């Protein structure tokens, strides 16, 4: 065995002492960052193979080998345990050399709060509560919002947050009851079985079992009519009609009416991979999703499929019994065992169809995946053209791959905040966004506020410097920014200010502003950055103004000062929650007591118009 000795004697010693047992191995770089996680049936044989030099080594493997500084192993009893542990460690560390999809811990769920007497449907970021039922995760926030909208329209679940108990009145029914979008359990007159029936309907809907749901509602409607409960029967009739319209819009793709997911991997000429997923429930197409893996350019299709299945079903609340795949995954047997565990010991069949209706379904998914790739690459071409046009228009030394946009917002001189948005290669980089509460600048002094924000941003050495700074404003904002950059020794950073009225560009060392044509791609890109910075700033300013107004309202109550006000604002999300809370609930907030809680409850009841 030829091992690369430049890794150092400690690593060589570790390689010699590796066990001949199943387990997981982690490679780390000099910064102790995990850069790769893998699993093996024989740790010694698998790990040592990375350090055997061969002419056929891929550039990815060569790059990984050069960066390995340290390694650690975790021994397991079986290869199946190693497979599960590997999946968990990849999610935890997100190593750069592993195939990565967007981390599904960021995907939202729809959650039914089953632990409450009258459950609500809310959005959740984690599926952790044992007394709740989760649906998802949803990779598209738009799909989640559309699902919520449909449910609120069709099923009269309550949306208020106040704690309710059967037979206890908690106030007058709200507008949702008047427009027949809530059964008003707050009135104390609704029986739990009637509300539970609606909850079960929502569960069937979210599971994609619309046909079963239609039969169930039809049966309940007939029973209600037979029992002379005509108002309930009319509500169920309207529900049935609404669901019928929804089902008519869904495309039937399989005549057998079964649940299955169809997954196709395709690659473009530019070696970009995409995984397309069609969710079919009851033979009808419910959702289409596309996923782009990273670090996959030199990885085999079977390995990418394996990682995608682990990514997709690692936290899924429902796995169909059949998956139609464009290629069978690597380590299929291990993967099927893992899927069975994820699916409550129900077998999940992985099938690569070769003919018939299922093959036709798979080809349809492939066509959609290729179309998505074409659109994606066209979009990337437009973004590159815009960056090139911007570099040419502003005479930049290089393409502005990282653009930072800044804006200042306030409310009549109060609650002044600054925003920083980041665009990377022409697209928003949300994790790079920052907000600043302006502390030192005088009220209404936008120049001083901008200078303060930029000084604090430049002090953060952990953030990479931008290729272009964009300021929302004109020559005054440009001068204020240029002075800050000069004082910080960063006066070589490219800088531009975009004035909104005439969309003029102000540049350092240029007397007259630059006026680009309205359709110029460079101007369009700068406008996107400027508008996003403005949106990001104004949302924080408005939130602070609302909080300030609520604080002012609370401190009008005798006994509530800044400390109690802060505790109340931290405990309750807003005025609606405060009003919905009982005196006993208000008294549980740290620093509160029963006397002050009662006074606050009565005060809020009197201020119902606020």
How would you characterize the overall build of this protein?
- With 610 residues, this protein is an alpha+beta fold.
- It has 5 domains: 94 residues, 3-Layer(aba) Sandwich (GIY-YIG endonuclease); 136 residues, no CATH class; 115 residues, Ribonuclease H-like superfamily/Ribonuclease H (Nucleotidyltransferase, domain 5); 136 residues, Nucleotidyltransferase, domain 5, CATH 3.30.420; 51 residues, Orthogonal Bundle (DNA polymerase, domain 1), CATH 1.10.150.20.
- Helix content is 44%, strand content 17%.
- The chain contains 19 helices and 18 strands.
- The strands form 4 sheets. Strands 12, 13, 14, 15, 16, 17 and 18 form a 7-stranded mixed sheet that branches. It has a 5-stranded mixed sheet with strand order 9-8-7-10-11, with helices on both faces. Strands 2-1-3 form a 3-stranded antiparallel sheet.
- Helix 14 links the parallel strand 16 and strand 17.
- Helix 4 crosses helix 11 and helix 12 crosses helix 15.
- It starts with 8 loop residues before the first helix and ends with a helix.
- 29% of the residues are buried.
- The N terminus is likely disordered.
């Amino acid at each position: 065995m030829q091992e690369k000795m430049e890794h150092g004697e400690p690593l060589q010693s570790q390689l010699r002492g590796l066990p001949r047992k199943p387990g997981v191995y982690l490679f780390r770089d000099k910064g102790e960052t995990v850069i790769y996680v893998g699993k093996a049936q024989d740790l010694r044989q698998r790990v040592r193979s990375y350090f055997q030099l061969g002419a056929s080594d891929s550039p990815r493997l060569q790059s990984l080998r050069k960066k390995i500084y340290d390694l650690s192993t975790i021994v397991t009893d079986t290869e199946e345990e190693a497979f599960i542990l590997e999946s968990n460690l990849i999610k935890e560390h997100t190593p750069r050399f592993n195939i990565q999809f967007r981390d599904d811990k960021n995907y939202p769920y729809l959650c039914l709060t089953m632990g409450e007497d009258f459950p609500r449907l809310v959005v959740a970021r984690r599926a952790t509560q044992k007394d709740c039922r989760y649906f998802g995760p949803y990779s598209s926030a738009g799909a989640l919002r559309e699902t919520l909208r449909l449910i609120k329209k069709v099923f009269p679940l309550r949306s208020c947050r106040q704690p309710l108990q059967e037979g206890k009145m908690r106030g007058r029914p709200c507008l949702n009851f008047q427009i027949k979008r809530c059964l008003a359990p707050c009135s104390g007159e609704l029986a739990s079985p009637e509300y539970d029936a609606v909850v079960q309907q929502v569960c069937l809907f979210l599971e994609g079992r619309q046909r079963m749901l239609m039969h169930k509602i039809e049966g309940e409607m007939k029973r209600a009519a037979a029992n002379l409960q005509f108002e309930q029967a009319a509500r169920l009739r309207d529900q049935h009609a609404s669901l019928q319209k929804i089902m008519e819009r869904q495309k039937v793709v399989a005549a057998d009416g079964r649940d299955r997911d169809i997954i196709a991997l395709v690659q473009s000429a530019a070696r970009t991979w995409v995984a397309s997923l069609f969710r079919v429930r009851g033979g009808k197409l419910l959702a289409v999703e596309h996923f782009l893996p990273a670090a996959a350019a030199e990885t085999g299709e079977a390995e990418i499929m394996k990682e995608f299945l682990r990514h997709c079903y690692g936290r899924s609340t429902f796995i169909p019994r059949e998956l139609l795949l464009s290629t069978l995954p690597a380590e299929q047997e291990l993967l099927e065992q893992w899927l069975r565990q994820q699916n409550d010991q129900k077998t999940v069949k992985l099938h690569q169809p070769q003919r018939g209706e299922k093959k036709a379904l798979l080809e349809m998914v492939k066509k959609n995946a290729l179309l998505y790739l074409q659109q994606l690459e066209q979009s990337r071409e437009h973004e590159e053209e815009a960056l090139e046009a911007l570099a040419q228009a502003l005479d930049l030394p290089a393409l502005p791959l990282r653009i930072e946009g800044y804006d200042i917002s306030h409310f009549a001189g109060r609650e002044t905040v600054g925003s920083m948005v980041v665009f990377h290669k022409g697209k928003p980089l949300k994790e790079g966004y920052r907000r600043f509460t302006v502390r030192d600048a005088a009220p209404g002094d936008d120049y001083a506020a901008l200078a303060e924000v930029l000084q604090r941003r430049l002090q953060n050495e952990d953030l990479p410097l931008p290729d272009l700074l964009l300021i929302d404003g004109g020559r005054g904002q440009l001068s204020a920014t240029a002075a800050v950059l000069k004082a910080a020794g960063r006066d070589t950073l490219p800088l531009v200010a975009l004035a909104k009225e005439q969309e003029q560009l102000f540049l350092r060392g240029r007397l007259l502003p630059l006026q680009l044509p309205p359709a110029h791609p460079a101007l369009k890109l700068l406008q996107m950055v400027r508008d996003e910075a403005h949106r990001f700033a104004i949302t924080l300013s408005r939130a602070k103004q609302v909080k300030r107004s609520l604080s002012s309202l609370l401190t009008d109550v005798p006994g509530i000062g800044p400390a109690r006000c802060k505790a109340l604002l931290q405990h309750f999300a807003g005025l609606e929650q405060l009003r919905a809370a009982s005196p006993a609930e208000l008294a549980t907030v740290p620093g509160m007591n029963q006397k002050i809680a009662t006074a606050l409850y009565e005060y809020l009841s009197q201020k119902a118009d606020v």
